[in-house]
Design brief:
A mainly alpha (57), B alpha+beta (371), C mainly alpha (544), A: elongated, C: 544 residues, Cytochrome C Oxidase, Chain A, 17 helices, 67% helix
Chain lengths: 57, 371, 544
């Protein structure tokens, strides 16, 4: 699970080590990545909203 | 013309020479603190882009020149480098955060409309602006004054071609003025570059923005949101006056409005109403129904020879006062005063061979409005 | 690229396929029926491309009417009402009938060839998606002849100008957009089904060429947002004809709701028009630099990030409608974020060039111009993201300059690059290099003459969509108009190049470009009607 989260975060940042990526594609299940990816997108939105709300005060 | 001169007399504005300094190539610095801040944000992000551009395009054109095949027949075969990728992702992020901080600060100031000393309601209408000084009993509409003959190329262009109006908005300097924006028909957008104020005017909704002008002068702008046929012909002109001059101007306008209100009660002669009506018609109605009342089918019906109009005074006045919902015909009950309504009704009932001989008295209209 | 040429592809796909084809398929109908009924991805691809080229010229003529009127101050040629119809139709035709079908055409031709599939997954649906388009756009164009004229409310058709105040033909406009939208959705479904199910054995997702990747993501964007467009135009239809008040404040509706819905569709739509362009350029630059793409994986990641972020930035088109401060800040921050993956793409292309062995054939010239000019459009986009400054930029010619830099030397140059790149595969002949260069240089000069001065006229205060302007904008507009006519006329050269190339020219081998690596270069040139009937076997190349 931690591996999946790490890979998704790397994907959000856009940079990933080749070795990690290969392992993800060989061992990981696509469903896990998609779920964690959607979750991470929601967290990103929440974070930006939070920053905006805090700054606007 | 005579009314326009009367509008400006005593305001001292004719003597003003302070014209906003614009290079003609770049965004104006403007005459408010906010507009100056926005200008500096604009220039900062511009120079950031220039520097990034120089580096990126520099590397690119160097590569294109240095590694063209005739000089470099064997391509290298490297790809992917985590360090480089981390750097070129992080660096832009940091630059953007650096940019977001001042932008946020400026935006917060722009949104602070509290403690205004004067409230002006700006209403967009196809295709003119209406200004109302809230709580001052002063309101008027502002139409483009560039003659159509200039637009059609039959006369030489004037100095402020398309950027001149019959009655400019007059504002004081050094006072915080809050604008309340709305519209009667479609969405317009009120924009004066020297104030860095651009705000959509939306039917049924009220937007806010504000300005504190630092220098007296004449500032020009235009409608910025496509609003139909004459979108390009609804300019904005603002005269910014010294505070005492503004107070004098406002008092004068207040007296004038009171005088006009008295006019409602007296009986008007046909010629008087026709003369006033022609003026109102030219400013308000002619852009759609045309100067000769011939209209523009299918959207804008003809008024000349319009049988319903000639036969049915009650319908005619109701149409002008309340508009026709679902069409482009707006309600003029709040735009025009009873004298103007009576005059334009009288005019359209007698001009272009309509010849009904009717005189519609302002008192009649006032009564109808009260109902 | 990730996958190397399969070793024994030629026997499989070419001679074997040709023989099998003539047995397996009934004799195709002749003449017009053949084109009406075709289910072949190559023929449908050609239909899409020809359709989009015709529409490119029609939309271009509308643009030239606009530029003609704006050549000088004053009204000389058209009245404001017709001017508004021209700006509106120019936008609608270019977006929905020129750029989008061109990319779909390229997808039809190239995706099966690049993944080693015999055809699209759903060939009959493919035929249907194409033939919806001529119906939609003939209907749309016919509104110009209707009483009251065609759409005159801008390609963004903001309510209530497009509902209560619209010409009577608006209902036809809505129907036309519905049909075009259905066509896009069906096309997208087909592309996703093809990519996910029909890759050659051994080709993993991360072995796919970037054009395939970018189109896969684009197709998901299409499926996500075209229904939103359909919803918003249906609400318009109800407001106009059935007495509802979705966008009419007098009836309790909200004109701003229209803009939120439109841009929730409209912003991803912008990326629909640029992501496939990234794919094309990512194929061409490595070919002519003779060096693999620097960061294949990060290109895929960046495309995906752009796609996700594209759903979070829509209200940056609405900074002056009176959004609350928090919303204004949110959309400013997300919009600035989207610059990061876009920058990553540009850096990747440039690093690919570094230490390559570069030649400058016509496709490469267009791809390089794309990188430079698209980046300029990206810079102005970054400036527009700064919300306070956008109060000055919004709805001025600065915005017009920005999105034309992204769409003309962006999307359209990439399409031209793709056409020059793949013409040898389609026709078996190289396009004329001399004419191609003329076309390129005239286009580059024309585009910059047209759109660069618009930055200045916008900053100096010229609003967009006006038929006449104040005198201080005259010089900029004069240059823009001259540039527009130069650009427009030089596109006739493009037609000449294509026609000549179809008719003959220097014969192209299967692998028409020395540095090209993808699977389409393993089939003969011209590609026979049926390819990869026996799937090629792709040996996955271990990523070094």
């Amino acid at each position: 699970m931690w591996q999946v989260i790490k890979s998704v975060l790397a994907a959000f940042f856009g940079v990933q080590k080749e070795r990690q990526r290969r392992r993800d594609f060989e061992e990981g299940r696509p469903g896990h990545f998609i779920l964690v990816g959607l979750g991470a997108a929601a967290v990103l939105v929440g974070l930006v909203v939070l920053v905006a709300v805090l700054v606007a005060r | 013309m005579s009314r326009r001169l009367a509008w400006l007399s005593g305001s001292g504005v004719m003597g003003l020479s302070a014209q906003a300094q614009a290079s003609g190539w770049n965004m104006p610095v403007g005459v408010t603190d906010i507009s100056a801040e926005i200008y500096s944000l604009h220039m900062t992000i511009f120079w950031i882009c220039v520097v990034i551009g120089l580096v990126v395009f520099g590397v690119m054109f160097y590569s294109l020149f240095r590694y063209r095949r005739s000089r470099h027949p064997e391509a290298a075969n490297f790809h992917e480098n985590t360090t480089v990728e981390v750097i070129w992702t992080t660096l832009p992020l940091l630059i953007l955060v650096g940019m977001a901080v001042p932008a946020t600060a400026t935006l917060k100031k722009m949104y602070d409309t509290s403690d205004a000393e004067l409230d002006v309601m700006v209403t967009g209408q196809q295709w003119r602006w209406r200004y109302e000084y809230l709580g001052e009993e002063v309101a008027f509409t502002s139409n483009m004054s560039t003659p159509r003959a200039q637009i059609r190329g039959e006369e030489p262009f004037g100095e402020h071609y398309l950027l001149e109006v019959d009655r400019p908005l007059v504002l004081p300097i050094n006072r915080k003025v809050r604008f309340l924006f709305t519209a009667d028909d479609v969405i317009h957008s009120w924009w004066v570059p020297d104030f860095a104020v651009k705000q959509d005017t939306i039917p049924g909704f009220v937007n806010e923005n504000w300005v504190r002008i630092n220098e007296p002068g004449i500032y020009r702008g235009q409608c910025a949101e496509l609003c139909g046929m004459d979108h390009g012909f609804m300019p904005i002109v603002v005269h910014a006056l010294e505070e005492d001059e503004f107070d004098a101007w406002l008092a004068e306008r207040r007296d004038e409005a009171a005088e006009e209100a008295l006019g409602v009660d007296r009986d008007w002669a046909l010629e008087e109403l026709m003369a006033r009506g022609e003026e109102v018609y030219g400013a308000i109605c002619a852009s759609c129904h045309q100067v000769e009342g011939q209209g523009m089918l299918p959207t804008f019906p003809a008024l000349a020879g319009n049988e319903r109009l000639i036969d049915d005074l009650a319908w005619h006045s109701d149409t002008v006062i309340n508009g026709v919902s679902g069409t482009a015909m707006p309600a003029f009950r709040s735009t025009l005063n009873p004298v103007e309504l009576a005059a334009v009704l009288t005019y359209t009932r007698n001009a272009w061979g309509n010849d009904t001989g009717d005189t519609v008295q302002p008192a009649q209209i006032a009564e109808q409005l009260a109902r | 690229m990730a996958s190397k040429l399969p070793k024994p592809p030629l026997e499989h796909s070419a001679s074997g396929a040709g023989a099998a084809a003539s047995e397996a398929h009934a004799a195709p109908p002749k003449g017009i029926l053949r084109w009406l009924l075709t289910t072949n991805h190559k023929e449908i691809g050609s239909l899409y491309l020809i359709f989009s080229l015709i529409m490119f010229f029609i939309g271009g003529i509308f643009a030239l009417v606009v530029r003609l009127e704006l050549f000088q101050p004053g009204l000389q040629f058209v009245d404001p009402e017709f001017f508004n119809q021209m700006t509106t139709m120019h936008g609608l035709i270019m977006v929905f009938a020129a750029v989008m079908p061109a990319f779909t055409g390229l997808a039809n031709w190239m995706i099966p060839l690049q993944i080693g599939a015999p055809d699209m997954a759903l060939p009959r649906l493919n035929n249907f998606s194409f033939w919806l388009l001529p119906v939609a756009f003939i209907l749309l164009l016919s509104t110009l002849l209707m009483p009251g004229g065609g759409p005159n409310f801008g390609w963004t058709f903001y309510a209530p100008l497009s509902t209560t105040y619209a010409p009577p033909s608006t209902t036809f406009f809505i129907l036309a957009m519905h049909i075009a939208g259905i066509s896009s959705i069906l096309g997208a479904i087909n592309i996703i089904a093809t990519i996910l199910n029909m890759r050659a054995p051994g080709m993993r997702m991360m072995d796919m060429p970037l054009f395939v990747w970018t189109w896969l993501i684009t197709a998901f964007l299409l499926i996500a947002v075209m229904p939103v467009l359909a919803g918003v135009i249906t609400m318009m239809l109800l407001d106009i004809n059935f007495g509802t008040s979705f966008f009419d404040a007098a009836g309790g509706g909200d004109p701003v709701l229209f803009q939120h819905l439109f841009w929730f569709f409209g912003h991803p739509e912008v990326y629909i028009m640029i992501l496939p362009a990234f794919g094309i350029v990512s194929a061409i630059i490595p070919t002519f630099a003779r060096k693999p793409l620097f960061g294949y994986a990060s290109m895929v990641y960046a495309t995906a990030s752009i796609a996700i972020l594209s759903f979070l930035v829509w209200a940056h088109h609405m900074f002056v409608v009176g959004l609350p401060l928090v919303a204004e800040l949110f959309f400013m921050y997300t919009t600035m974020l989207i610059a990061v993956p876009t920058g990553v793409k540009v850096f990747n292309w440039i690093t690919t060039l570094f230490q390559g062995s570069i030649t400058f054939e016509t496709p490469m010239l267009f791809a390089l111009a794309f990188v430079v000019l698209f980046t300029i459009g990206g810079f102005s986009g970054l400036m527009l993201a700064i919300a306070p400054a956008d109060f000055q930029y919004h709805d001025t010619y600065f915005v017009v300059a920005h999105f034309h830099y992204v769409l003309v030397p962006g999307a359209i140059f990439s399409i031209m690059a793709g056409v020059y790149y793949w013409l040898p595969k389609w026709t078996g002949h190289y396009p004329s290099e001399t004419l191609g260069r003329w076309h390129f240089w005239l286009s580059v000069i024309g585009v910059n003459l047209t759109f660069f001065p618009m930055h200045f006229s916008g900053l100096a205060g010229m609003p967009r969509r006006i038929p006449d302007y104040a005198l201080q904008f005259a010089d900029f507009n004069l240059v823009s108009s001259l540039g527009a006519f130069l650009f427009g006329l030089s596109q006739l050269l493009f037609v000449v190049v294509i026609v000549k190339c179809v008719r003959g020219g220097e014969k192209a081998p299967a692998k028409a470009w020395e540095g090209a690596e993808d699977l389409e270069w393993s089939v003969p040139s011209p590609a026979p009607l049926h390819t990869f009937e026996t799937p090629p076997h792709v040996t996955p190349q271990p990523h070094p």
